[in-house]
């Protein structure tokens, strides 16, 4: 099934311009047209996202990404259920062996409630129960997700702020269980993210070949 990213915004590892080193964000269809080596449509309709470790990043980090983002923010109460479902294959990973593959992000803050990682062959999770919580609570959702294996990852959030992260690979599935957001998140605006976000800071010495690549073969975003 073809993956449609034309309604999404893509954060790229490409600089805005020769004089502005900040990472360029643009519409999915435009990203495919302008940067086919970074956002690539494969023959089966899947989308490949490539993020070299050394590239353009946001103003606040030295970490690169190739990541889709919803263009429409939402609140917990705006729908009974909020779903982010991806079928993915990580074909290359950076030297730190750690990359963010999915997020439930919050507008205007660097501390999202949910970050899902591929971390040295396991799917792990960082969860913030409270808005502006300094450090997330980290846990392992599913062990044994090797490089090159196709896996499913989902983030489900209810209007009551109950979050469940589920992962499945090679017929084995596991869940985070129900994680409860507290009332400090009720008025916040959220958007789902996915793709590859390198968890290693680049330097002048970072090899050009270091980086992460994923293939997204199915993507479903539902709010209802």
Automatic annotation (TrEMBL):
Residues 3-223 form the Alginate lyase domain. It comes from Pseudomonas putida (strain ATCC 47054 / DSM 6125 / CFBP 8728 / NCIMB 11950 / KT2440). InterPro entries: Alginate_lyase_2, ConA-like_dom_sf. This is Alginate lyase 2 domain-containing protein. Pfam families: Alginate_lyase2. It comes from the Bacteria.
């Amino acid at each position: 099934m073809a993956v449609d990213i034309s309604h999404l915004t893509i954060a790229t590892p490409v600089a805005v311009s020769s004089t502005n080193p900040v990472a360029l964000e643009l519409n999915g269809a435009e990203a495919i047209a302008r940067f086919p080596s970074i956002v690539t449509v494969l023959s089966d309709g899947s989308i490949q996202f490539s993020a070299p470790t050394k590239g353009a990043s946001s103003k606040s980090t030295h970490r690169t990404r190739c990541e889709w983002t919803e263009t429409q923010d939402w609140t917990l109460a705006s729908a009974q259920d909020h779903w982010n479902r991806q079928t993915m294959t990580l074909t290359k990973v950076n030297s730190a062996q750690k990359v963010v593959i999915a997020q439930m992000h919050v507008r205007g803050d660097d501390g999202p409630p949910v970050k899902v990682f591929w971390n040295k062959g396991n799917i792990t999770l960082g969860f913030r129960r409270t808005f502006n919580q300094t450090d997330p609570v980290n846990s392992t959702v599913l062990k044994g997700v090797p490089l090159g294996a196709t896996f499913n990852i989902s983030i489900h959030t209810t209007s009551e702020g109950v979050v469940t992260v589920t992962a499945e690979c090679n017929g084995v599935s596991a869940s985070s269980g129900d994680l409860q957001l507290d009332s400090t998140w009720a008025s916040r605006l959220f958007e789902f993210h996915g793709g590859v976000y390198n968890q290693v800071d680049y330097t002048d010495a970072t090899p050009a070949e270091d980086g992460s690549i994923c293939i997204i073969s199915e993507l479903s975003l539902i709010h209802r």
